[in-house]
Amino acid sequence: MDIILRLLAPIAPFTSEYLYRKMHPDHLSVHASSYPVADKSLMDEKTEARIGMARNVLELTRRARQNGGIKGRQPVKEILVHSEKISESDLEPVREEMNARKIKIIGESEKPERTVIKVVNSKAAPILKGKMPEFLKFIEELNSSNQVQRMKNAGISFEGMEIPSDALQFVTEPEKGYVREEENSVSLFLNTEIDSELELEGLSREIIRRIQVMRKEMNLDYDASINLAIHGNEKIRNAVEKYRNKIMAETLCSTLNVFVDNSTQGRMWEVEDQKIYLEFL
Q1: Which of 83, 86, 97, 143 has the alpha carbon at shortest distance from 118?
Q2: 228 in Cβ contact with 280 (< 8 Å)
Q3: Contact residues for 12 (Cβ-Cβ < 8 A; gap 6+)
Q4: 130 CB contacts (<8 Å, ≥6 apart)?
Q5: What is residue 150's predicted lDDT score, i.e. its pLDDT?
């Protein structure tokens, strides 16, 4: 406690002074005592590095979710991580928050990527002129085939014209259905496909969040139980029935009834563009 008060003194001078004088009535002031010095023998650089890598992966996950339009509470099917420095165990501290059914460390050859050709219009248009639309369609067809890598090495010609290398860019992009984020030698691929089961689970988590907000607004004791009625559509009912036990356990719900009707009883929430009414009974 003594060390904590000395650490706290610069940012909470009056509170730390009051508590310090209570502990040490014979001392002049917490501000007259020496500031604590770190014991470097207690530092574990390897653990700090592992935690730093885990935090980096978590931040990449958040960015991938944002770019893919997927909320943090929505479980995803798969997250793939490529890095020579990260192991499966390094991700344990953030695995739950990453919120994916499958999290896997992958090798270079397992990356869900493809090489595609991008046309530099300012370079290609003066050469191709009126044939530019046909050339763009030709490139689109190439990108849909398995010949891009071969073209990268052999060069591209179109209707007897050699296309200069500076008119084309060969870029690597994630396969369809994935979002890619990269930083600090780590590549992360998030599968954006949300099937019906994942959708229902995400919906149930959104419902739990709304119930918790209502509990807080009503100033209920943390251990107070509730009786709840939920009014919504068929999808709402399916989510509630599938995850009934989880919803009841996390919200301390004694009874839970769900109705598919047009009732407007209770408080209205919009969850994933769907109206839901929550009624505490």
Answers
A1: 143
A2: yes
A3: none
A4: none
A5: 72
Comparing CA positions, the residue from 111, 263, 245, 250 lying closest to residue 191 is 111
Long-range residue pairs from 133-138, CB within 8 A, at least 24 positions apart, any chain? 134/159, 135/163
CB 224 within 8 A of CB 252: yes
d(CA 170, CA 151): 10
Q: Among 258, 280, 272, which residue's Cα sits nearest to residue 203?
A: 272
Residues 6+ apart with CB under 8 A from 206: 71, 73, 271, 272
Q: Is the full-model pTM beyond 0.85?
A: no
Write out the two tokens for 48: 């700090």
Q: DSSP letter string over 241-254?
A: HHTHHHHHHHHTEE
pLDDT digits (tens, 9 = 90+) for 222-254: 899 999 999 999 999 999 999 999 999 999 999
- 214, 280 contact by CB (below 8 A): yes
